[in-house]
Write a structure and sequence with these properties.
alpha+beta, 1 helix, DUF397, DUF397 domain-containing protein
Length: 70
Protein backbone atom coordinates (compact mmCIF):
# COMPACT_ATOMS: atom_id res chain seq x y z
CA UNK A 1 0.00 0.00 0.00
CA UNK A 2 1.26 3.45 -0.90
CA UNK A 3 0.59 6.27 1.55
CA UNK A 4 -0.95 9.41 0.06
CA UNK A 5 -0.91 12.84 1.67
CA UNK A 6 -4.32 14.05 2.77
CA UNK A 7 -4.62 16.74 0.09
CA UNK A 8 -8.32 17.23 0.85
CA UNK A 9 -7.40 18.82 4.17
CA UNK A 10 -5.21 21.43 2.49
CA UNK A 11 -7.77 22.92 0.10
CA UNK A 12 -10.41 25.51 0.99
CA UNK A 13 -13.90 24.06 0.57
CA UNK A 14 -16.99 26.22 0.13
CA UNK A 15 -20.71 25.63 0.05
CA UNK A 16 -23.35 27.78 -1.63
CA UNK A 17 -25.01 30.32 0.63
CA UNK A 18 -28.31 29.13 -0.89
CA UNK A 19 -27.90 25.67 0.64
CA UNK A 20 -28.39 26.75 4.27
CA UNK A 21 -30.55 24.19 6.04
CA UNK A 22 -31.51 22.21 2.93
CA UNK A 23 -29.51 19.09 3.77
CA UNK A 24 -28.59 18.09 0.20
CA UNK A 25 -25.37 20.02 -0.20
CA UNK A 26 -22.12 19.68 -2.06
CA UNK A 27 -18.94 21.60 -1.41
CA UNK A 28 -16.48 22.69 -4.06
CA UNK A 29 -12.82 23.64 -3.96
CA UNK A 30 -10.12 24.67 -6.41
CA UNK A 31 -6.86 22.74 -6.54
CA UNK A 32 -4.70 24.23 -9.26
CA UNK A 33 -6.47 23.58 -12.57
CA UNK A 34 -9.02 21.21 -11.04
CA UNK A 35 -12.44 21.79 -9.45
CA UNK A 36 -13.21 19.32 -6.66
CA UNK A 37 -16.66 18.25 -5.40
CA UNK A 38 -17.67 16.39 -2.25
CA UNK A 39 -20.76 15.67 -0.19
CA UNK A 40 -20.84 18.15 2.69
CA UNK A 41 -22.15 15.42 5.00
CA UNK A 42 -19.38 12.93 4.09
CA UNK A 43 -16.22 15.04 4.10
CA UNK A 44 -13.92 12.01 4.16
CA UNK A 45 -15.75 10.15 1.40
CA UNK A 46 -15.32 10.28 -2.36
CA UNK A 47 -14.18 13.44 -4.13
CA UNK A 48 -14.96 14.14 -7.79
CA UNK A 49 -12.58 16.21 -9.93
CA UNK A 50 -13.36 18.07 -13.16
CA UNK A 51 -11.82 20.87 -15.19
CA UNK A 52 -12.95 24.49 -14.79
CA UNK A 53 -14.50 24.34 -18.29
CA UNK A 54 -16.55 21.27 -17.30
CA UNK A 55 -17.57 23.04 -14.08
CA UNK A 56 -18.76 26.04 -16.10
CA UNK A 57 -20.87 23.86 -18.39
CA UNK A 58 -22.33 21.92 -15.46
CA UNK A 59 -23.16 25.06 -13.47
CA UNK A 60 -24.76 26.62 -16.56
CA UNK A 61 -26.94 23.57 -17.14
CA UNK A 62 -28.03 23.50 -13.51
CA UNK A 63 -28.85 27.22 -13.51
CA UNK A 64 -30.87 26.93 -16.72
CA UNK A 65 -32.78 23.92 -15.33
CA UNK A 66 -31.51 21.56 -18.03
CA UNK A 67 -30.70 18.88 -15.43
CA UNK A 68 -33.08 17.02 -13.13
CA UNK A 69 -31.28 17.57 -9.83
CA UNK A 70 -34.07 16.32 -7.57
Amino acid sequence: MVARPNWCSTVVWRKSRFSAGQGDCVEIARLGDIVLFRDSHDRYGDVLAITPAEWGRLAGRIQSDELDVT
